[in-house]
Amino acid sequence: MSILTRISEIESEMARTQKNKATAGHLGMLKARLAKLKRELITPKGGAGGGTGEGFDVAKTGDARIGFVGFPSVGKSTLLSNIAGVYSEVASYEFTTLTTVPGVIKYKGAKIQLLDLPGIIEGAKDGKGRGKQVIAVARTCSLIFIVLDVLKPLGDKRLIEKELEGFGIRLNKKPPNIHYKMKEKGGINFQAMVPQSELDAELAKKILSEYRIHNADIILKEDCVTDDLIDVVEGNRVYIPCLYLLNKIDQISIEELDIIYKVPHCVPISAHHKWNFDDLLERMWEYLRLVRIYTKPKGQLPDYEAPVVLNSDKCTVEDFCNKIHRTLLKQFKHALVWGSSVKYNPQSVGKEHVLMDEDVVQIVKRV
Q: Are 180 and 143 in contact (CB under 8 A)?
């Protein structure tokens, strides 16, 4: 029996099963079984068919990477060429491949790579079309733009989310706050630090037994569901911020536009008329959570033209030094920092100091 047949059988059994306390254990086991089969589908045994495909993977450049995902003819290509054409310092961008088209824009001092991924079709996660390779590239992005036609957004949105979820991509979610560690003996040690609405020790044991895990420590630090525990056990999930771009707003009324603006994570645009691009780029910057650090050579003014761009969860002085050159830490004595991360300007700090956006840093080396 093929993997796809087994997946559809499990999905239909889950749809038939009533959801209540008595069936929670059975549903948990089915979900775990489904996650294992989907993993096999994504990474086949022996590596056959596991490649990225001709022209799909593009060399990562710049400070962040944004993937445009959507069904064919929703305006992804128009949007990319108009954004890259309007906001890029270089108007032409390299059409190095026939499939994934890369463009680069410079915004607030950061270089951001834009990838127009080929239109995905329903069933991409099951290997239909070339959707599998498209979603594999989407997993490497810092932010995903899901481009939707404003006239039929909800149906397309659900389908694309389902495809991405099937590939272990979690949109606009944080990793579950679960401590999970396998051990050699001692059985399953289950602890819940907060009251749980769904998971208990018995259900956790049933899920882990599906993975043939009989010795492990599990500590739940928030209210978690079955899917959260499965995600942690699988260990191959990626958590990516996402913006939904509702394109073709020139075809709807002002009243409808007001309603769209209230939907979370949504930005209404018109790629053809270049409407609302300023708001789109501001939201993009907010979701990327980048930090700009300016360098200051000794006795000179800070260089405000070319900031060192770091991710907000990796922005210590040590990360800053590594981004410039890895040998810099060997000569590091201390750093002088001006900006919002320090009390005094300048302040002498060590390599563990966490920097904030638009700080100015001068590295003092050992003599």
A: no
CB 153 within 8 A of CB 78: no
**Is residue 336 within 8 Å of 360, Cβ to Cβ?**
no
Q: What is the pLDDT along the chain (367 residues), one digit of tens a residue?
A: 677 788 888 888 888 988 888 888 888 888 888 888 877 766 655 444 444 444 456 677 889 999 888 887 788 878 888 887 644 333 333 333 335 567 888 899 899 998 877 655 555 555 555 556 666 777 889 999 999 988 887 788 888 888 788 778 899 999 999 999 999 988 999 999 999 988 899 999 999 999 999 999 999 999 999 999 999 999 889 999 999 999 989 888 888 888 888 889 999 999 888 899 999 999 999 999 999 999 999 889 998 988 999 999 899 999 999 999 888 999 899 999 999 999 998 999 999 999 999 999 999 998 7
Q: Are 201 and 231 in contact (CB under 8 A)?
A: no
CA distances (Å), origin 59, targets 96, 115, 215: 10, 11, 41
H or E, element range at 210: helix 201-210
Query: Do strands 101-107 and 110-116 pair parallel, antiparallel, or not at all (unpaired)?
Result: antiparallel
Question: Which residues, 6+ apart, have CB-to-CB distance to 81 below 8 Å?
Answer: 103
Neighbours of 146 (CB within 10 A): 26
Phi, psi torsion values for 338, nearest 5 degrees: -115, 135
The Cα 137–Cα 83 span in angstroms is 21
d(C-alpha 88, C-alpha 340), whole Å = 30
Closest-CA residue to 361 (of 283, 294, 312): 294
Tokens found for residue 316: 């210590």
> Which residue from 210, 232, 207 is spatially nearest to 219, judged by alpha carbons?
232
Q: How far is CA 265 from CA 107, 261, 284, in A?
A: 20, 9, 10
User: What's the pTM?
Assistant: 0.81
